[in-house]
Amino acid sequence: MIVLGIESSCDETAAAVVNEKRQILGQSLLSQQEHHAFGGVVPEVAARAHLEHIDDIIKSAVKDAGIAFKDIDAIAAASGPGLIGGVIVGVMAAKALCVALDKPFIAVNHLEGHALCARLTNDITYPYLLLLVSGGHCQILIVKDVGEYERLGTTIDDAAGEAFDKVAKMLGLSYPGGPLLEKAALSGNEKRFVLPRPLIGSDDCNLSFSGLKTAVRKIIESYAEDGDIKNAILEPQDVNDICASFQYAATDCLVKKLKKAITIFKAKYPTGKHVVVSGGVAANTYLREHLKTLADAEGLIFAAPPIKFCTDNGVMIAWAGLERFQKGYTSPLDFKPRPRWPLDEFAPKAAGAGGVKA
Ligand code: KG4
Ligand code: ZN
Questions:
Q1: Domains, the chain, ranges and CATH?
Q2: Beta-carbon neighbour count of residue 86 at 10 Å?
Q3: 255 or 39, greater pLDDT
Q4: What is the pLDDT of residues 280-307, one digit of tens each?
Q5: Which one of 12, 108, 164 would you pick to mutate in the ligand 1 pocket, going by the greatest count of ligand atoms within 8 A of its CB?
């Protein structure tokens, strides 16, 4: 069974081919550089870049796999949530190929791509506990099966990656800021600035990063005579220390809330074995290490996709598509791309299980 997956929901144009033996046969990925000058992803610029490159990216993934288009059994595309212009580009390309090749189409929720990706690279059985931390989302979920998700908590304001990016931007680091912030933090003192841990004492598994971000802003403002962060005079060591202190606080929030979620997970699923982190922020080694320490202490197995598959890629969409296809969940060709699409919203066995509500 061979599935082609297409990803175009943010600023990566990507495609990959996988099979049911968990082999990545071919892949191709283009990280759009056009957005750097703007300090963030510009939706129209992203959509145009996807349009420009999607055909070549698909062709190159199939060529890399050493197969012909006719050898593909199904074609999956990230069909939301995301920037709708880009999502449409990937979905239309997938549907056109499905019509031309007479193959089934599979609408994959981009978050499901992140959620299932670790099952391609690690031996992880359902159910498992998932911390999904990306640029647009921050959720704790129980993954019961393909398409069966129970959300235990979510951010009530910024996503984790969004907070990393905004703090990095305030410090004059370029975009995307997350990886640059992590690098700067390596040379910083995480105890120098004491930052708040919003919602840490609340009984639920929800998270909040907005107050943490504002606290960082206030520190930076204090380095400017006129209180304007653009005029702040920061030594490189100050930047490193702020990055380390922020990363420490953000990680602390994630670890504490995941600990609460583990208690719920264990009570509901005593046989569950794994704690998984995925999404772009899961590329952060400091976070991975702290989550592993938590999982070890709780007697659970920590797992995460390899760092290169944490940020958006075609492999995760192809793999989620393959898991759906194995269960017989294909989608109708009139499936409409969805800019918003909560992962825990749809019933898996619903007609056209790509996302049609039961
Ligand atoms: O999953 P992703 O590629 O796109 C979305 O679905 O949003 O995640 C991108 C996010 C960005 O906010 C980026 O700054 C963050 O992941 N990110 C990181 C790291 N690498 C990527 N954040 C912290 N540390 C990293 N090493
Ligand atoms: Zn993503």
A1: 2-114+309-357 (3.30.420.40), 123-304 (3.30.420.40)
A2: 30
A3: 255
A4: 999 999 999 999 999 999 999 999 999 9
A5: 164
